[in-house]
Amino acid sequence: MKGFRRNGNVNKQRSNTTTIGGFDHIQAVTVGGGFPVVIQTMWKDRLSFADLEGPLGEDTCFRINRLRDMGCGLLRFAVPDLEAAEILGNLASRVSLPLVADIHFDYRIALRCLDFGIAKIRINPGNIGNRANIEKVLSKAASKSRPLRIGVNAGSLPLDLRRSVEEGRTDRTEALVVAAERELALFEEFGFSQVILSMKASSIADTIKANRILADRTDVPLHIGVTEAGPLIAGVVRNAVGLHALLSEGIGDTIRVSLSDTMENEVIAAREILGAVADSPGNEVKRQGAAVISCPRCGRNSFDTHAFTQRWQNVLYTIQKPITIAIMGCAVNGPEEARYADLGITGAGSKVLLFCHGKVIKTIDASEADAAFAEALENL
């Protein structure tokens, strides 16, 4: 892996760069090289051509644009067949967010996706096919200046490595690394350098170990995440533990928080993990956009923080300014405890207070809370 090997004690986050998008109307995203960590999510449902037409098409594009505004830099789609490739290619012509095709089993789907404005292709070396098929994909991707992601999963390793793990001759971490290094060597042999690498497992330990090993061996940008992490709470916890450990060491150039939940919550969770790393001493990761804090609610509450937070959550995470928004339930957790907030709202008896840096700026009835909050947010 001569061309991909790291030189000396380079900071792990200072890897080579890969640019995704930046053609036609597609925005450019740079991954690696110390650039901000890029957040990804994955579309949860299979699209049909009907999803691109009329009001459904408008809703699809609106949701994609909202994900972009919330901080999503790349949006991946499963592409199981050639029809799905046509649908995704059509969608890519309508939005500026770089779209990524996730390809398994059939290299011909990857070739078809490269005919469209799809910004990146993800292939799995465990099931994409033989050397000749991979060469065809690399050749066309190079001619189109499109990057590829090598996606190695613990659950779909190449057959020989899978057997080696099952027979106890190789542990899963080593198998992940070997599979990744094989593909990197093949990419290098064909002179293809626009590559991102990921090694994912449902095991936090395997994910951390494999990425630590590769980060010391290569300058290739790394996409990190704990795969099949579970429902909202379990998935956030598992990803937070694994991703914080890696990001704190400067490992990871793009992330996805894999959840059995909404895309929006995946993006929000990724934002918060990056924010937690940014708040840790000695880290170079920078917080992106607004930080939202809210009290858990208790018997003292006179303001339904849960319902209010749910209504406003996705809107608040589209704010690009590095500000803090506080949603509090009563006077105990109101202006004093959250006095550093740029904008806050809290219950106070039968009224609701809006405050800024601890100073009350408006007292209103609960029925007026949303309108008053929207106006105050607009004026920030």
Number of strands: 15
Shape descriptor: globular
State the order of secondary-structure elements, H for helix, E for strand: EEEHEHEHEHEHHEHEHEHEHEEEEH
Number of helices: 11
Percent strand: 15-25%
Query: Over all CA atoms, what is the radius of gyration?
Result: 23 Å
Concise synopsis of the structure shown:
With 380 residues, the protein is of the alpha/beta class.
Q: Can you put this structure into words, describing what you see?
A:
The protein is an alpha/beta fold. It is built from eleven helices and 15 strands. Strand 3, helix 1 (54-70) and strand 4 (72-78) form a beta-alpha-beta unit. The longest helix has 18 residues, at 172-189.
Keywords:
380 residues; alpha/beta; 8-stranded parallel beta barrel; 5-stranded mixed beta sheet; 11 helices; 38% helix; globular
List the helices and strands and how they pair.
Layout: E1 17-20, E2 29-32, E3 38-42, H1 54-70, E4 72-78, H2 82-92, E5 99-103, H3 107-113, E6 120-123, H4 131-144, E7 148-153, H5 159-166, H6 172-189, E8 195-200, H7 204-217, E9 222-224, H8 232-248, E10 254-256, H9 263-279, E11 291-294, H10 305-316, E12 324-328, E13 343-348, E14 351-356, E15 359-365, H11 369-378
Parallel strand pairs: 3-4, 3-10, 4-5, 5-6, 6-7, 7-8, 8-9, 9-10, 11-12, 12-13
Antiparallel strand pairs: 1-2, 13-14, 14-15
Helix pairs in contact: 2-3, 3-4, 5-6, 6-7, 7-8, 8-9
